[in-house]
Amino acid sequence: MSQVRLRFAPSPTGYLHVGGARTALFNWLLARKLGGTFVLRIEDTDVARSTQESVDAILQGMEWLGLDWDEGPFYQSDNFPLYKEHVDRLLAEGKAYKCYCSSEELEAKREKALAEGRKPKYDGTCRKLETDVPGKPFVVRFKAPLDGVTAFDDLIKGPISFENSELDDLIIQRSDGTPTYNFVVVVDDASMGITTVIRGDDHVNNTPRQILLYQALGSPVPRFAHVPMILGSDKTRLSKRHGATSVMAYRDMGFLPEAMINYLVRLGWSHGDEEIFSREELIEKFTIEAVGRSAGVFNTDKLLWLNAHYIKSGDPERLATLLLPFLADRGVDPSMGGPALPTVVRTLQERAKTMLELADGAVFYYTPLPLFDDEAIAKHVKPETAGYLQSLATALETAADFNHDAVEVVFKEVCAGLGIKMGQIGPAVRIALCGGTVSPSIYEVMEVLGRDESCRRLSRAIARFSA
Ligand code: GLU
């Protein structure tokens, strides 16, 4: 059995868009599932719009998502001699012809057709020329069949067909000698032996023209799967108006790559009513035929829900590593002292929906003097509070053990001794330890901070509360 070969072929004119990332993901999944090859090809023939910065951004996005490629990246700009060779071959075989019509002539014909209510289409003037016109600039046009039908069975959309009479004699080489987009895609997919083309459905109309080119070149026609686009909440095509569309912007907003992968695959593909898929499960269960025909609507709440799931169930060591840049943004470097970061992560991962929340929650552990939240103090600190905290601090200093359970016992004993409820002291202790009243369980926080640091923070708060 011959091997499947798939490719992702981004144009480097911007960052990696979530729609592009999903196309890359579907290709990658199918390649991994079928033990095939995943090729990365950079479509940079539009020299004016392509930038190295954009290539780097796309590669960075692919790497962050863990979509590794087996071959490439190949650059179309390296292939100009190959394209030229194929244009010359089609000319020599009479399957393409030089067209000398000037843009003014073409424009006049176009206007005439429109005025007469006909669809504007190249009228084939130069198709009949038998000799070259030396010295005159020309484009090369593909000699498309004048009748018949070009059809294909799209793996997602089902059978699609176009009347050949609707298709123009496509320009395959411009007057400056550069090849055009539809032509280079075919030459590349043919020479790279691509067996299945999965791409956005904005390319459906290109497909019949490309099929005719494969046939003219004598190359096998690949199978096609056109993926429906991604819409924003108002059902128009997803764009910056709806929020971030760059994959890396989601990393910066604190999303994990596994949440993004899980979210993107479900945006258009389903397997029963399952929502959570590990990478291995996706490779096992993914099929292109199960991709839906209708456009998916990007839903940030669902992405957040998945992200919370992956943070909650994530390995604390790994989350700690991913958290470092977010902490650095907050001026925190855990290697300078303080509790071990994975331990801190364990106390916070249950509740954090994003890595930003996780980082915000971790800051107080590494801040020797957390800033007191004055509003919280006004609300929770009464004249008698400093005294209560003093009793607690004294008991904690001499407690035999200092872990979650031991601290809890001390708390309860102190409250019983003072004849107060936990609620009369808990919020103030939180303020003392963390600066404010939002934190994981106080017992957990104390265990992680350790006895010395917990008592130091209590003393500092006692001084402040009694002032
Ligand atoms: N370079 C094209 C794009 O970015 C993809 C073309 C294709 O996949 O055939 O939309």
Question: Care to describe what's here?
Answer:
The chain folds into four domains: 139 residues, Rossmann fold (3-Layer(aba) Sandwich); 150 residues, Rossmann fold, CATH 3.40.50; 53 residues; 93 residues, Arc Repressor Mutant, subunit A. The N and C termini lie far apart (82 Å). Strand 1, helix 1 and strand 2 form a beta-alpha-beta unit. Helix 15 packs across helix 16. The protein contains 19 helices and twelve strands. The chain has a three-stranded parallel beta sheet with strand order 1-2-3. A three-stranded antiparallel beta sheet has the order 4-5-8. A two-stranded antiparallel sheet has the order 6-7. The mean pLDDT is 96. It has 467 residues and is mainly alpha-helical.
Total number of helices: 19
Question: Into which percentage range does the β-strand content fall?
Answer: 5-15%
Radius of gyration: 32 Å
> Into which percent range does the helicity of residues fall?
40-55%
CATH class of the largest domain reads Alpha Beta
Q: Could you tell me which ligands this complex binds, including any ions or cofactors?
A: glutamic acid
| Spatial strand order of the main sheet | 1-2-3
Shape: elongated
The assigned CATH architecture of the largest domain is: 3-Layer(aba) Sandwich
| Largest sheet, strands/sense/barrel | 3 strands, parallel
Number of domains: 4
CATH names the topology of the largest domain as: Rossmann fold
**Contiguous runs where pLDDT drops below 50 for at least 5 residues:** none
Strand pairing plus helix content: what structural class?
mainly alpha
Mean pLDDT: 96
Number of strands: 12
